[in-house]
Description:
Blueprint: E1 3-5, E2 11-13, H1 16-24, H2 26-31, H3 43-58, H4 61-65, H5 68-75, H6 93-114, H7 118-142, H8 153-161, E3 167-170, H9 179-183, E4 200-201, H10 212-216, E5 222-225
Antiparallel strand pairs: 1-2, 3-4, 3-5
Amino acid sequence: xxxxxxxxxxxxxxxxxxxxxxxxxxxxxxxxxxxxxxxxxxxxxxxxxxxxxxxxxxxxxxxxxxxxxxxxxxxxxxxxxxxxxxxxxxxxxxxxxxxxxxxxxxxxxxxxxxxxxxxxxxxxxxxxxxxxxxxxxxxxxxxxxxxxxxxxxxxxxxxxxxxxxxxxxxxxxxxxxxxxxxxxxxxxxxxxxxxxxxxxxxxxxxxxxxxxxxxxxxxxxxxxxxxxxxx
Length: 231
């Protein structure tokens, strides 16, 4: 697709902004609509099923293009964010898995209590989304808008499930200029994975597959491909 220039001056693939604005509409639908019809919380289950299907072929593509929360942070919260650097420890395995365990334990305990009622179950999923949105907004207002996406349990699950799939690859023409890191919603630096005389690949969980780095790379050194075993 032909890239477009966003108001921020960053080039991005055409229509990605449209898909994100459309998905943002699901946030008020679930959060507000769930007050009157709790079963609408099962929309979250549908989204989980959708991203697991997409993950098998395109990694965290859902995160970069279709996630309602991520879209809200990137398109709307960014207007108010201080955009400070994401803390390095947010990307450490122990912190990410810690958040995952805490969130999943909390959800599981609530699901066990609500198991006998469809309305109660739907409300659990809605509540979990509201908790995530609240935490994400708090982080995104001070740090970069999509800071939550670095520790999101669902993002972690997608990264682990697609460790060999559609990885961001860096060829040796990369000059490590750092522009890719500046345009990445989660501040991933593909240049750090450059391999002299070969192709370096960014770990699946570190890339939203948004393609911002690809269309902004001055050397066309970035692309997507499955895991390269032999170089």
